[in-house]
Amino acid sequence: MEIPTKARYLHLTGKVFTREDGLPFMGDFVEDEVIFRCRGDHGLLHCENEFAIFAWDHYEYWKDGKLHRENGPAVVSVFGEYKEYWINGMKLDMGSVQKSCHGEPDRLKIIENRGDTLIEPERRH
Fold first, then answer.
1. How far apart are CA 123 and CA 25, in angstroms?
2. Most buried of 35, 52, 72, 86, CB within 10 angstroms?
3. Whose CA is closest to 52, among 32, 37, 34?
C-alpha cells in the first residue's frame, strides 16, 4: 500500500550518491534548480538541523538517507500549506501525535525502547 504524502523525493531513500571516482559524494549539489545535501560520509541525503532538499516551494529534512526530523515536520511547504512528520523514513499519524502532544506536534521527543523508536511529547517543567 502506498502512503499518501507530499514528499517529492522518496525514490531517493537509501540512494548513495557517488563521485566520478566511485567514492561516496559529500557536500551539496544542484539539479533542476533543487538543492540536495549529502553532509554525512556515506553519500546519503543527510543534513543535521537543516533541510537536505530544497526546491523553491518545498523542503525536506533527511538523516542517513531517510526522511527524518525529530523536532518538527520533515516535509514542509515553504508557504505553510502542508507539513508532514517523519521519523526514520516512516510517516507519523498526526491525529495520534496531535492528541498526545496536546496540539503541539513540534514538541516531539524521540525515545528508544528495546530497539523500537517511540514518539512521546516533551515534558514541560
1. 39
2. 52
3. 37
DSSP assignments along 9-56, one per residue: -GGGTTPPPB-TTSSBP-EEEEETTEEEEE-SSSSSSB-TTS-SEEET
Let me know: does 103 contact 95? Beta carbons within 8 Å.
Answer: no
Q: Is 73 helix (H, G, I), strand (E, B) or coil?
A: coil
pLDDT in tens, the chain (125 residues): 567 899 999 999 999 999 999 999 999 999 999 999 999 889 999 998 899 999 999 999 999 999 999 999 999 998 878 999 999 999 997 655 544 454 555 555 544 333 444 444 444 44
- Asked whether 52 and 44 are in contact (CB, 8 A), the reply is no
Radius of gyration from C-alpha coordinates of the chain: 15
Please calculate the CA angle 14-41-39 and round it to the nearest 5 degrees. Answer: 80
